[in-house]
Amino acid sequence: MSSYRNQQYRLAARPVGNPKHSDWKFVSEPVREINEGEILVQTIYISLDPAMRGWMNEGKSYIRPVAIDEVMRAGGVGKVIASRSSRFAVGDYVSGGTGVQQYWVGAAEDKTAAFYKIDPRLAPLPKYLNALGMPGMTAYFGLLDVGQPKAGETVVVSGAAGAVGQTVGQVAKQKGCRVVGIAGGKDKCDFVVNELGFDACIDYKNDSVKDGLKQHCPNGVDIYFDNVGGDILDTVLTRINMKARIVICGAISQYNNTTPVKGPANYLSLLVNRARMEGIVVFDYAARYGEAVAQMGQWMAQGQFHTREDIVKGIETFPDTLMMLFEGKNFGKLILQVADE
Question: Which of 99, 135, 142, 217 could join 280 via S-S bond, C-beta 3.0 to 4.6 A?
Answer without folding.
Answer: 142
